[in-house]
Every structure is written in C-alpha cells, then in structure tokens.
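Every protein is a chain of amino acids, and every chain bends into a shape of its own. The protein below has been through that process, and both of its lines are reproduced in full.
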Amino acid sequence: MRLVEGSEIDLTVPKGAVIGITGDTGCGKSELLRYIAGIRRPAEMGEVLVNGLDPYSHLDERKLRREVAYVPQTPGEADVCATVALDLASGPENAGWEPARTRYAVKKWLKDYDLPGGKTRMAILSSGAKIRTILAGLLITEPEIILMDDIFALMNAGEAYTLFRSILHHAKKREQTVIFVSGRQEELRLADGIYELSGGHLYDSTERIMHAADLGIGIKQAGQDASEEESTNVDADPAAEIGGKNRNEEQKMKISCTGVYKRGVNPFLLVSHWRPYPGSRSMSFSFRESGSYRITGGTGTGKTELLYLLSGRMPAAEGVLYHDNETIFLRKELIRISGLSSADPTADFIRDTVLEDVYSGCPSGMSKDEKLEMAGGMLDRLGFPEKLLKKNPGKLSFGEKKIVSLAGALIRQGGLLAADCPMAGLDADKRKKLKAVIAEQRKNGMCFVFTDPDSIC
C-alpha cells in the first residue's frame, strides 16, 4: 500500500462470500477497496484478479465495471445524476437494457428502497437518502461483486442495520460476493469472515471479534489494551421532542441534553418557531452555554438542516434566532460565533494543507506562528499524525479528514460547535481523544450540538 512501508496484502475471497474489513483510522481500508475496484493502483503490486479479470487491464476494465459495484464512503465521492430517477436509470442504460425494462426496474427500486420521488433532485437529499439512492443505483443491475466502504457510518444505526441485512439477504440468494468496511460490531457479525487491516497487512480476526461481541465487549483494534473498555453510556436528561417530521413518515427529530457544566440565566442561542423546510412543524428550543445536545431522528427529519441553521450555513424556511437575547438577522453573525464540522468533512476544507486549514479557524489577533502552534497542538491532542500536517486535506482518509474538520471547529474559543456525525470514521482511540477535547472546551463555555447515529458521544 502506498503509504505503508513493507505492506503486503494476501487475500482470496470465494464467490458468494461476505467479508468484513475493520481497522484503525487511516490504516488504508478505503485504499484496499479501491485497489480491488480498479480505481487506484498500488505503487508496487503483485496481482489483483477479479473473476479472473485484471482491473488494471484496458481489455478487462470495461467488463469489470459491469460486474463490480463500488459504493464510496461518502455521497460526495460518487458520480450522481441530477435526479433520483436518472441516477437509478444510469446503470441499466449503461448496461444496454431496453427502455421498458429500465423503467420497470426504476419504479420497483424506488419503492423497495423507500426513496423519494423520481423527480427529486439529488442535491437536496439528506445524507441517508442520498446513500440509499446511490446504493440502489449500483445494485439495480445485480453486479457479481459488491464493495461497500463504511457507507452506513453517516446513517441512523437502526436504519443502517436493517438496510444492510436486506442487502446481504439478497446477495446470498444471488450468490453475489460482498466485501465491506465497517467499524460497527453488529454489522461485522453478519460477515462470513472478518479481517483487520494493520501495518499494511490483513489479519483474520473473525474468531476474536465474534467472541468479543458475544461477551458484549467493543471492537479492540491493533495495539489497544484488551482490558480497556470503551464507554458507550451517556448521563442524559430526558429527551426533548422538537417536532420535525420526516417528509414521508411520521418520524420525529429529538434533542436530548447530555449534561451541562453551568446553566446561565439566559440561553446562549434560542430558536423560535423554526421550520427546516416548507410543510414541517414549527419548533422552538434553546441551547445553553457549556451544554451538550444530541439530535436524533429518522432520515430526512431535518437534523443536518438544524446544524446548518445554527452555524449560519443556510437560512430556515421560517423562524427567528436570538443570541444573548438579541435577534440575529445576518447569517454572518452566526458564522462568527459558531463552527461547523460537516458529515462529509471535505466540504469544510478551504486551504491547501492540513495545518493551514486548521489554523484558519484560530481567534483573530494572534500571530501566524501562534496560530500554527495552536493548530498543531489541537491536531496532536486529537491523535492526528504529525507526518501528515503538510498534506492536502482532500487526499486524506475519511477518518483523517474528520479529525481535521473537527480540529478547525474546536480551535475556536467558546461559541457553539455544530458537528454532524463527529465520530464517524474514527477508531476507539480517536473517539476517546475527541471526547476529552470536547469536555475541556465545554468547561471553557463552548456549546456542543451534534448528531450521532451510534449514540456514543
């Protein structure tokens, strides 16, 4: 593997098998799937054969594209069409299907995957709905091999598990081969074999992970003390329902407070009669200094829209915001007091190197050297490798991108941090470090509002 000295991967996957791959943040899991899909080629490689075909041969490449479905980790990495129906139809059309057969298949998959109307624009879909659409668009032609790169990390855990089981059920019936990356124990347990990627080598971890799951112990990555347990519990106040319902279903979005170090008389930020999109219910709620608030709800309930509203990235369809009891009219005022870490961290990057991108979030009035030192310190506390500080953030692994995005938001002093799925793509050690930094920043007055499909913040 390109970034791992002395790496050597040796793996044979029989037809119809389901293989799970796990490993620490940045170990190369996504890179490995790209090798198999023929998207990227190792610097020095031996041989990759898929059904006897070479992904790097121009003669075999076109045929392999029809046999292999590669689902990237985030929706932003996929090439999508303008609307849901067009995206679903692109696969059958490229495969040379008759128009009538394509129309029938699109109609069936829209229903089976609970997708929005065919004329719905892909750009306005929530992350969960977009992932389901992209997945359906690749599976509709029934490929022989399915490669999924931790695609459920940004989805509600319950919805993701149900969808994943459905995919595997149909794959078994059709003898499709499935190779997937995941850090979720409940997903890995559905595999026939589980491998851990560490130091550029694959280790068969099926028995170890299955045994740990039976004992109720979290996944232990390479080098982690087996006696160390990762806490997944939160001392939470009763959940407060704030009403937003799904565009298609009666699912509600909820906000629960996970503890407040100090409660001021006035709320840090108050939202009055907010409607995330036309037709949704009106909501009113407040966030207090040093508070931590988890947002939960089904796909399309408005969780991400709420974070965008709080960070000034988009206006609400209706509603008024107050900061320290003063009405906020300008979105630039929100941007000044709020930071955002997006579900897809690539959208947050504005500079050419990791260090420059993070220090751009430092408070004004500091010298460049002070900002660089502060940015480097924050990245170090989050466990980011020093050797990658000068690398372009867009070329990092998903988990590494996540750390950079969070560091740029956390480096602000006080204010509010809106984080969409902050733990997605992070291994147990990185999650532990992130929790410690967030706890410290909250003591300094920062308000933390986040979505979390795994509910482990």
